[in-house]
Amino acid sequence: MQQRAEMPIDDPHASLERRLIDEYLARQGRSRAELASLPEDVRLKLLRDAEMYAAGRMAEIEARAHYVEDLHQHE
Question: Rounded to two decimals, what is the model's pTM?
Answer without folding.
Answer: 0.72
